[in-house]
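sorry for the late reply, my laptop died twice this morning and i had to redo everyting from scratch. anyway the thing you sent over, i finally got around to it. pasting the sequence first so we're on the same page, its 302 residues, then the predicted structure underneath. double check i copied it right bc i was rushing
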Amino acid sequence: MIRCDRLRVDRGGVAVVDGVSLDVPAGRGLALIGRSGAGKSSLLAAAATAIPIHSGDVVVAGQSARRAAAAVRRLIGYVPNRMPDLADLRVGEFLELLATTAGLRGVALRSAVDRALAMADLSRRADEPLDVLPSGPAKRLLVASALLHDPQVLLLDDPFAGLDPLERADLERLLEDAVLMGRTVVAAIDDAVVPALFTDIAILREGQLVALGTAEPASFAAGRIWSRTLVCPGRAEDAARVLAPLASDPRAIDADTVVCGHDPARGPFAALVAAVVTAGIDLERADFTTPWTVQLLEQSGR
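ok and here's the structure:
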């Protein structure tokens, strides 16, 4: 559905996206992760035809961003990382402006605006000025506005920034619905905490694609040591001794908690869990110490 083919984007004579090739089919969600300045935002902006492509191409449903930019813009919805400076507009007026820009008129325009308001759960706030919207509703409004013209591909630049957990969950549900409806979703995620709706992950570093795989730890396991935490109430020291032959540097950080390194090449994490339970130690919780995608980004940046 959307393909980058040796994409290069220059800014100030420097390649900020350098030879990136990837392909995201319909109905898939790709999370772009990478440190600040890795090229995530520039890749999305180029795919949205918002900035020039130096070489290579982005192809959306067979249409070239370099040769058929107008056609590509009809196929995509682009969500920037901040609300446009249109504070004098009200919520409904903002949607009407974007719907008009997308070529909608009359009944089709009204229907699209009403649908977007409902999607963003803002029907009762249509007459409120944009600049009074909290971050969560504002992000939902941006996503809904990008879907006004029913695009096949949705591109989002850091959509979860500044959201509290409940606002984040609301936006995740909205994006999950987009994937379930067969749309392709590509998002830059600065904090590397990747929601379950994403099926694939790409890591960018200094403008280059350094890793790509399905959104599961096994896809990126080769050569990695995952930091794991096991909570064993009152038995952390005992659990650390049990784990010593199986894990890297198991250590009790308090009376209840053990942290260790798990090398997938030595066996599944389930074997560590089984060893603790078989030793008669109560296990309350076993998980990644920090989200595995955050660890993945940290290790990929070395």
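The chain has two domains: 2-215, 222-300.
thats about all i looked at so far, will dig more tmrw
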